[in-house]
Amino acid sequence: MSLVPVDWALATTHIASDYVCRQFCAIVGVTPKILPPPELDVVLMLGCSHLARILADAYLNPVTINFDMMRYSEVLQKQERGVNPCREEFLLTRYPPDHEIILERPAVVLDKFGLIVLWYLPGAIDAAIQNDMLVATMMMSGPLGKSITRGTSPKEKWHTDESNFQISEQGFTSGCINLSPGWFLQAHLAPQFQPKVSATLKSDNGVAYCRVMCRPAALVAAASRVMHSGLYWSSLTTQLGLGVWADTHQTQPMGNRLREWASVFTVVAVMCNWYTPLHRDALSRAQWFDIMTSVGGYTLARMKMPNIGIEIAYNSGVMAGTSGRIVRHGVNWVNSD
Q1: Which CATH class is domain 60-65+101-331?
Q2: How far is residue 110 CA from its own chain's centroid?
Q3: CB within 8 A of 98, min separation 6: which ones?
Q4: pTM (2 d.p.)
Q5: Which tens digit of pLDDT belongs to each residue from 147-198?
Q6: What superkingdom heads the lineage (predicted)?
Q7: The dihedral formed by the CA atoms of 273, 276, 277 and 281, expressed in degrees to the nearest 10
């Protein structure tokens, strides 16, 4: 019996994640092979099978670095944004990486005590599901265009500052938006305030956004179940708890969006840019993983993680999971659509 209500989009996501997890275990030789569940459509089933193989390839290619995640996390300040050059130079001097490593094939990066620092999965998202993500981005052109800011500090507001965007020749609208079926507005935290549906999902197109993101959301959730199972189950429990809360407080808009929301995470950020400066995710926690994906027409993109001495090829279809609070990361300028 599924933990997730059958009328929720998350129910299919949970089935997909279970399949990827079992298939991954079969490939690495832990359990017998299994058949795909009939509840998955062909596109999602093929995408999940492909993802399981890439996850297994990464697992079987461990890379150990001279880094102590626990100790490093203890020296970070509460709101460590990673945009202060002097502060970052101090951290690099105190905790210098041994050498630079460039990754171009699937790998798991471990610290010196065996804790996972990074899952790197190039080509994890197959072409069909990449297309779903591109369609979703096209559909969100309205809110993306309205998100661009001007005259602000590029370092503090890099997500939306105009300097990090260019005009697309392929019809994509630059910008950065957040989508959530239930989150706290900025500076409106519990217990004084209650969670709300994000403005983008409240719009007339909110249902369409959720539906077009179903397969990409399921794939990311499936990867998280293998990469960080504790985070997956905590996120799933949070979603179910939000559903109970919405029902108890009779907040129909949130209840409706939760039924349509396929991601195991409560927030998805959609960014259509050509540059991401080096930064940390200040509101994240050391034990959490950010899962980053990228699609589109471009080449030679690199994500740099200078404090752990890692650089990865960040081409279309990539998926990377790491602690956004601990690992400082950014993507170089690229000519793209």
Answers
A1: alpha beta
A2: 20
A3: 65, 66, 309
A4: 0.94
A5: 988 866 656 677 888 888 777 766 688 899 999 999 876 655 666 678 889 9
A6: Eukaryota
A7: 120
Residues 6+ apart with CB under 8 A from 179: 198, 200, 201, 209, 267, 268, 269, 270
What the block records as the tokens of 237 is 């429990």
Q: For residue 287, give the nearest of 223, 235, 239 by alpha carbon.
A: 235
Cβ–Cβ contacts within 10 Å for residue 332, how many? 15
Rounded to 10 degrees, the C-alpha dihedral 165/171/175/178 comes to -150
Q: Which residue has the tokens 């099978």?
A: 49
List, for residues 107-150, the tens digit of each pLDDT value: 999 999 999 999 999 999 999 999 999 999 999 999 999 998 88
Backbone φ and ψ of 330, nearest 5°: -165, 160
Using alpha carbons, select from 239, 308, 247, 314 the residue that is nearest to residue 274: 314
**Angle between helix 252-260 and helix 229-248 axes, rounded to 10 deg:** 150
* CA within 13 Å, CB half, 319: 26
| Spans of all domains in the chain | 60-65+101-331
Tally Cβ neighbours within 10 Å of residue 283: 11
